[in-house]
Amino acid sequence: MTKQTNDDASRESPRHIELADDENRSKDNTNGEPSPALTDSKGWDGKLRIERNAVLQNHAALSDPEYSDEENVFPGDEISADEDLLDDEDPETEDISLTHSRIGNIPALRLDRFKHVVRLCLRQNVIQHIEGLSSLGPTMQELDLYDNLISHVRGLDDLVNLTCLDLSYNKIKHIKHIEHLTKLTDLFLVSNKISSLDGLATLTNLRQLELGSNRIREIKNLDSLQNLEQLWLAKNKITEIKGLANLPKLKLLSIQSNRIKDLSPLREVPQLEELYISHNALESLDGLEANTKLNVVDISNNMIKSLQGLGPLKQLEEFWASHNQIGDFAEVEHELADKEDLTTVYFEGNPLQLRQPALYRNKVRLALPQLKQIDASTLWNPNSTHNAEWQLTQDVAFVLAT
Fold first, then answer.
1. Methyltransferase: is it a keyword of this entry (predicted)?
2. pLDDT in tens, 339-362
3. Contact 157/138 with Cβ under 8 angstroms?
4. Residue 235: band (very low, low, confident or very high) from pLDDT cuts 50, 70, 90
5. What is the pTM assigned to this prediction?
């Protein structure tokens, strides 16, 4: 029995794993090639391979940047708003704020318990429909529904006393059903999907209108907004400044990150005091001469080479021109030295800064001695030890560099 066992043990059993012999392994390593992979008796290396046979079913999802497939989105489990969220709230309160509370159902909050609410803030929730607010109509003046899931503006019929409405960061495509909110002074519709400036004609008391990060291509239908003071239209698809001639009180225009090439239409708003027009396609400042009341101008990140056009702007206080093509210190002095109220300039990223970074700030300071700030650096203040030390360092650097 023992002999038979030993004979069986001595027989070579079939190998489950093939190993390369030392000689071949050394040879492969010497040539810089990888060693043979480990395999079983059938040649399998233990890796599961699946054929790549994915098929694209909807080509529009890749070809259309504005494509939305909301119809095929399966809703997740909805967590209803908990009415107990307000159980500890004072029934006489004028201010209710429930931010980031996963509220999806406004009626479940039972807001009719509160008879004196002036301001309601339901920011950053999952609200899809505006409803359950009618009982607040007599008193509420401010409604904030920023960052929710609202697609259509409805349910505001009884909120006739609203002065401030914020529907930013939702999914709104059209400005509708707010024509009766004639007391509105501030309207925020930032980062929606709005493509046309409609539905605003009756809001004649508006002072501030913010429509940044939408899909607007043309400025129009604003003629009735005679009291508008601030218009924010950054990050849209606007190619031309127009439609502003009948806005006699407009003081601030923000139109960054669009496709503007010409400033001459701004002569229609000579009362303008602040202009923010960075990240556009400007190559010159021609056309800005008529806007003599401007005190803040931001032209950063354009392709401007000359400061000609700033001469008549005697009230200029802040001039931001970073990342353009400005390279002439003599022109900087010629156009800006007579601006007595000028306190801040930004020229970083221009050739005049990139060519001589060590001398740049001192040259600007000598050309414009009235300044208090160059880029992010505050200039010398006799009452500040820190600024005095900084100025001494700059002076030493200037002497060494020259």
1. no
2. 999 999 999 999 999 999 999 999
3. no
4. very high
5. 0.76
Distances (CA, A) of 264 to 219, 279, 286, 318, 383: 15, 18, 7, 21, 43
- Asked if the model's pLDDT at residue 269 lies above 60, the reply is yes
End-to-end CA, the chain: 103
Cα–Cα distance, 205 to 208 (Å, whole number): 9
Superfamily holding 277-402:
Ribonuclease Inhibitor (3.80.10.10)
The number of beta carbons lying within 10 Å of the beta carbon of residue 97 is: 13
* Domain regions of the chain by residue span: 277-402
Would you state the structure tokens that stand for residue 398, as one six-digit string?
Answer: 């200037």
Name the token pair of 247: 């806005």
CB 185 within 8 A of CB 205: yes
Element (H, E) at 275: strand 274-276
Q: For the beta carbon of residue 188, count every other beta carbon within 10 angstroms.
A: 20
Beta strands in 65-221 (DSSP E): 95-97, 119-121, 142-144, 164-166, 186-188, 208-210
Strands (E) in 92-196, as ranges, are 95-97, 119-121, 142-144, 164-166, 186-188
Q: What is the amino acid identity at position 223? A: D
